[in-house]
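Can you give me the bound-state structure? Components:
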Amino acid sequence: MTATSIVSKLSDNQVLSPKAKDMVNNITRMAVIPLLGILGFLLLWSAAAQNIDTSLGKFPGPAAVWEQFGSLYEEHTTERGKEAAFYERQEKRNAARMEKDPDYVPKIRAYTGKETFLDQIATSLVTVMSGFLVAAAMAIPLGIAVGLSKTLNSAINPIVQIFKPVSPLAWLPLVTMVVSALYVSPDPMVSKSFLNSMITVTLCCLWPMVINTSVGVASIDSDLVNVSRVLRLPAMTHVRKIVLPASIPMIFTGMRLSLGVAWMVLIAAEMLAQNPGLGKFVWDEFQNGSSNSLARIMAAVLVIGFIGFLLDRGMLQLQRYVSWDKSSADR
Amino acid sequence: MSVLLDISHIDMVFPTPKGPFTALSDVSLKIKKGEFVSLIGHSGCGKSTVLNVVAGLYQATNGGVLLNDKEVTEPGPERAVVFQNHSLLPWLTAYQNVELAVDQVFGKNKSKAEKKEWIEHNLQLVHMDHAMYKRPDEISGGMKQRVGIARALAMQPEILLMDEPFGALDALTRAHMQDSLMEIQAELNNTVIMITHDVDEAVLLSDRIVMMTNGPAATVGEILDINLERPRDRLALAEDAEYTHLRSEVLKFLYEKQRKVEPMTQKKATATANESKSEAA
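Here's the bound-state model for the whole set.
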């Protein structure tokens, strides 16, 4: 007997009060059906996987991928263990030399082991968020200015329209060259590869945010603008008290759009430029070509999807928290 | 009493893609302090345009508006506007909406406590003190309009401009609001210009009714003095001969002298004129 039939039997049961019936229906809709969907997908996947033979062996099914999740985590803990051991050895060595020669200045070297799957996830997340925040810091003020001034809009619009359809990956070579030419410092705060990835993300986040913010600002109810005029609100107060709150829903639409695109673009950029992150992990596994590689890539694919989902949900929660217009956050 | 507001020979011409459209032509009106004046006319006749010129939201093409002998060139809180669609900021509570106005008008002249008292006083005046901390989407249309009136009153304007303030409300709520407005008027004796297309509302509330001719090139047709005793009671007035006479005067003007015959082509012309107006706004 399947779960739904049990549930429907339960809800058919006259003993249940209408309220309990409602609850059962809700549980069915919210949990049971999605679970069934996932189950169906897993079955299809494993059936299909068995019939695909690649040069790296059979296409990984759910079980193989699950196994790789385990071993990826194991590798991570082993690597951390090695790192801890390395620092312990280094400390002991330094302490021993200090005892012999008090003038000795201890050298501390950083551990240079390979980055684990979890490290790559962290790198990608930090990169996407920094690129996104930099873009927001530029795009939202610009979008407000463009939305308020028709002149500025006419000046900027053609540029935005030309750059908007450009895949940020096309920028990547240019960004790489410019960063390596201009970002020269003996003690760099962040690595060049991080900067390349981040700027690429920023470039792709910029346009949707500028456009949505400016449209939001330009479409403010003229009555609200008149209220501000009658009150003679100074320009900055007008922006703060009227323009910004009124366009918050549109600003968030732009932010959610661009964060989604940014996450996709980042993975591709990391693959292409060999910058650390999930994209590089995927590419390295592909180049590695062991019998486990495909399963490990599939694990990465699932993680990428899940993180993308979480990022979007996170923005939605933030919007619910910040915006006065709760209905627009439900879309 | 002296003249507070002098609308002097204003013309209003809107540029449209089909050439200039003359909405108002030579509108003149003098309003005394404490007077309640209604502007009535068919829709599209330019009533709102007159109000917007007085508010300073539009600039008259010719002529001008004097308030206390000073020319009006821009909007300002001394000419507070009650908009038709309440125009409350939806992200602020009733209290905060009024507060925005009070902060702006009395910024440095009132202490924090005084401001709070003044905001609450104005919300009490419109009987909204029970829902001060509700947001516009949590209260009814009539309540929103009450808050809109409280916001305008809180600016302590020289003249209160009301643009079909009760036009969007149902008949019962509207009657309620009219009674409230009369109550407030008895207490504060503000100078008011109100746009309306409701004959009963105009006769009930006004000291004078300014009837406007049909556009394009609308102007003041007739002015009717309403000398009914105050306080006025709508039930008693319903059978009052003077009231019935005044009411029929307005009706005669609107439906005999300024009867609106609209061939299809003219309708289109006014429609484009309205569009261009909203663009200009």
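A couple of observations. The interface with chain B takes residues 221-224, 226-227, 229-233, 237, 241-242, 245-246, 248, 324-325 of chain A (CB under 8 Å). The two ends of chain A are 36 Å apart (CA to CA).
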